[in-house]
Hints:
Layout: H1 8-27, H2 35-57, E1 71-73, E2 78-88, E3 94-103, E4 110-112, E5 117-125, H3 137-140, E6 143-150, E7 153-161, E8 168-170, E9 177-178, E10 183-187, E11 191-198, E12 202-203, E13 210-211, E14 217-220
Antiparallel strand pairs: 1-14, 2-3, 2-13, 3-11, 4-10, 5-6, 5-9, 6-7, 7-11, 8-10, 12-14
Amino acid sequence: xxxxxxxxxxxxxxxxxxxxxxxxxxxxxxxxxxxxxxxxxxxxxxxxxxxxxxxxxxxxxxxxxxxxxxxxxxxxxxxxxxxxxxxxxxxxxxxxxxxxxxxxxxxxxxxxxxxxxxxxxxxxxxxxxxxxxxxxxxxxxxxxxxxxxxxxxxxxxxxxxxxxxxxxxxxxxxxxxxxxxxxxxxxxxxxxxxxxxxxxxxxxxxxxxxxxxxxxxxxxxxxxxx
Length: 226
């Protein structure tokens, strides 16, 4: 299992602290009983479990990208919590279908490009840290947006911080080319990803569906009718 590089400092710190505390246990620091004995062993187990959690959280599995180039893959991993028709004024500048994915702390938090195309729009906006499944999170929370132009229309992906998340990473810059299924960013510790696609594209997912990042088809692009 690959690890996202952003997780290395967190994993190294937790492993060093766990190693130091287990070393203290091995050397007999704190004696054979009493509060110090309990505290050192509790700390050793706590940082050991934290190390395992951090390594699991920052996992970066290779996706299985569908062969059909018209399929739009999930940009995030988690549960579909919202599908609705909206007006997207920022990048699509008109009617769109919005698909929202909630990522718990147990889901993969690497984001991958839902389509191949050229990055035409990028914006980071600081904000609040409300629970990510709330409707207001799309408007009020810290977020990063990436607009991708394809031959059949524009797509907007929005990374939204959650209650625990405090850092959104979006790798591409305007003018870069992204490939469907390739990594484009990461959100640390609990979050949400909103996907906006043209209104005439077909939605292939339903509320409550679990999706895998870069692998699960959630929409199908198509040419707009004359």
